[in-house]
Each structure stands twice: as C-alpha cells, then as structure tokens.
Amino acid sequence: MSDMRLIVAGAAGRMGCAVIGLIAQTPGVSLAAALEGPKSPALGQDAGIYAGVGQLDVAISSDPLTAALDADGIIDFSTPQASVELAALAAQARIVHVIGTTGLSAEDREKIAAAAHHAAIVQSGNMSLGVNLLASLVEKVALALGPEFDIEIVEMHHRKKVDAPSGTALLLGEAAARGRGVSLAEQSVRSRDGHTGARPEGAIGFATLRGGTVVGDHSVIFAGPGERLELTHKAEDRTIFARGALRAALWARGRKPALYSMVDVLGLK
C-alpha cells in the first residue's frame, strides 16, 4: 500500500508541529499539506522548517479544499469551528479525519457525527494510550464503588490553554458517569465559590489549574468514608498525543464511515 498522505490542521500550533515532526520520522506516511487560519503569520513558510525538523517542501496554507484533493486523511488539532468545517470536507472527499481538538460544543459534536455518515472520523479529547487506559479504569472503578465515594477530577495545563475543563478531564468525567449510569451533564460541578452548601450526592466535580508549561496532568479521585483512591496520568511530552493521532489515522484508513474513538483504535472495548 502506498504512503498515507496526511494533512495537518493547526500546523503552526504546538500539537501541529509535533505531528509534522512525527510524520517526517515515520515510514508509511507523508505530509500532503499543512493548514493554518487565513491570518496566521506562519502562512507560506515551509512546514518542516517551522516545526523544526528540516525542509519538507510543503508550505503552510489556508486552503483546505485544494489540500484535500491529494490526501488520504486529516490530523486536526485546530479550533472547534475549523474542525467542524474540516469534518464536512472529509465527508465530501471521503477521507479519514482524526480530531484532537478540544472545546467542542454539543452542536459541534452533532455536526461532526453527521459528517461521520460519509467519512471515517476518529474524535477524542485525548489521543494518548495512557489516558485512554485510564478512562477505561475510571469507568470500572466508578461501577465498582458505591455512591458513598465522591468523584473529583483535577487537571492542570500550561498557561496558554484556552478551554476548561480540558477535553481529557471531560473524557474522564464521561467515563465516570458511564460507570455510575448517570448523565455527566446533569451531575457535573464545574465551579465552587462562596457559600456552596454541602457537596451534592452523586456529583462529579472538576477542578481546573493553569500555569507554566505543564503539558497535561489529570487525576480522578474517589473519596469515600475513611479511604481515598486516586488514579493519575501525567503527560511529559506532546509526542504521545501525536503518536496516538497518527496511529488513529492509519487504523481508520479503509474503514467504513462512522464516528470512532480511541477506545476503538486501541481495542479497549
């Protein structure tokens, strides 16, 4: 089989540069195009030089339609609006779309799910193997422990992250909610300030920390009478997410149109 030609969306961002660097080092894949928004100062620059891996002769562009004509898939760490538009493009072009973008609204997710009727789309709040294994464990623990154990999710990221809670924290919250057989939307507590009263039974709490250059730390705490269980993942290098995204793209190549997750990619079901 020929190399899988991949478009990288959000090419000038931290994750975009990590994905471009990994593509340059990985047999069986090649960089078809690198995309950024129309106002990005990176437009026109060589994607490889910008990412620090040497010249790749692929200029950073803002034209996704032209890029899709010669590609097999898109790896997308961009913005919610761009991800929705790229999902529609992937559906039109019948190519793979891997979405690592966070901060997606319910409406965004509905549009992506609609696009997945015509394209293989892998969407996840986190692409790393470790985090997805953690989510699987969280679901099992939430199922095993009774309601007397309170669930709190604590996450910390670098000072420049723009959405909160993180996509990973929400992924872990969804796993806990599945284990409890409840709706996260109905049970989540996102902030506490002032005289809040006692903690509601069954609530799934979120605490968000921002600062420095932290790649991503996540802990799920099960606090019960007289004991506490903590499950933690610490990301030390963004390449773990890039590796997961690349693995997802290769896994999705040739699969039927549907909305998949990293659980599917990693065979954790």
Descriptive terms for the model:
269 residues, alpha/beta, seven-stranded parallel beta sheet, five-stranded mixed beta sheet, 10 helices, 37% helix, elongated
Describe the structure.
It contains ten helices and twelve strands. The chain has 269 residues and is an alpha/beta fold. The strands form two sheets. It has a seven-stranded parallel β-sheet, with helices on both faces. Strand 2, helix 2 and strand 3 form a beta-alpha-beta unit. Helix 1 crosses helix 9 and helix 6 packs parallel to helix 7. The longest helix is centred in the middle third of the chain and has 16 residues.
Secondary structure elements and pairings:
Blueprint: E1 4-9, H1 14-25, E2 29-35, H2 47-51, E3 60-61, H3 64-68, E4 73-76, H4 80-93, E5 96-99, H5 106-115, E6 120-123, H6 129-144, E7 150-157, H7 167-180, H8 184-187, E8 188-189, E9 204-210, E10 216-224, E11 227-235, H9 239-252, E12 258-260, H10 262-266
Parallel strand pairs: 1-2, 1-4, 2-3, 4-5, 5-6, 6-12, 7-9, 8-9
Antiparallel strand pairs: 7-10, 10-11
